[in-house]
Amino acid sequence: MVISIESTLIGAAVAVTLLAVVVLYRVVRGPTVQDRIIAVNVLGTSTVVIIAFVAAALDKPFFLDIAIVYALLNFLLSIAAAKLTIDRGEVL
Amino acid sequence: MNEPVVQITVLVLALGSVFFTLVAAVGLIRLPDLYTRAHASSKADTLGAGFGLLAVAIAFGPSRTALKVAFLIAFVYLTNPTAAHAISRAAYDQGIEPWTKEDEEGGGETA
């Protein structure tokens, strides 16, 4: 095989980064607040995947801890924003 | 670790991840209202993340690190649709109307 695992993972990380930049359009443009929150949620998921790709490509396993914390914060952001925008405080 | 089977598996899974993330991005840009966008983000993006993290787990090989990635996959699969559901439900309680076919005649995007 000509293509190594490292170059595959770096290429996938670059592609996901470019798609995250495309999703940024919805964050800027989105008519409602909830549109922006959903787009930011997608950006956060893309960030987790990019961190995991880079961790595997550079063979640095401790990067995955950062990815896990980022996923937790991403979930917390969505739930907190959903709770904040309605009055009675039940979102699930 | 550098066997051809591992290389091909990682390549295919990474391509699947990029494809489904592309589908999610197109859906997020092109679909007409909040609820359809939540649908695109909660399904296509979650599947793309799952493929990508599976590629990472296979690239690391059988180890404690791969177990950590497996936890990350399970966590993303649980939380991502839950978050989209919570946001959509908050939007519905706030009174944002879903897009219907009549809105299409006005042309362009709905508020």
Plain-language structure description:
- The complex is a heterodimer of chains A (92) and B (111).
- Chain A is 80% helix and 0% strand.
- Chain A is mostly helical.
- Chain A has one domain.
- Chain A is elongated.
- Chain A starts with a helix and ends in a 7-residue tail after the last helix.
- Chain B is mainly α and 111 residues long.
- Chain B has one domain (4-95).
- In chain B, α1 (4-30) runs antiparallel to α2 (34-60) and α2 (34-60) runs antiparallel to α3 (64-93).
- The termini of chain B are far apart.
- The model of chain B has no long low-confidence stretch (mean pLDDT 87).
- Classes of the chains: A mainly alpha (92), B mainly alpha (111).
- Chains A and B meet through α1, α2 and α3 of A and α1, α2 and α3 of B.
Strand content of chain A: under 5%
Helix content of chain A: over 70%
Shape designation of chain B: elongated
Low-confidence stretches of chain A: none
Oligomer: heterodimer
Mean pLDDT of chain B: 87
Give the number of helices of chain A: 3
SSE order of chain A, one letter for each helix or strand? HHH
Q: Residue-averaged pLDDT of chain A, rounded?
A: 88
Q: What is the ordering of alpha helices and beta strands of chain B? A: HHH
Largest sheet of chain A: none
Rg calculated over all Cα atoms of chain B: 18 Å
Structural class by SSE content of chain B: mainly alpha
> What's the number of structural domains of chain B?
1
Into which percentage range does the β-strand content of chain B fall?
A: under 5%
Q: Extract low-pLDDT stretches of chain B.
A: none
Number of strands of chain B: 0
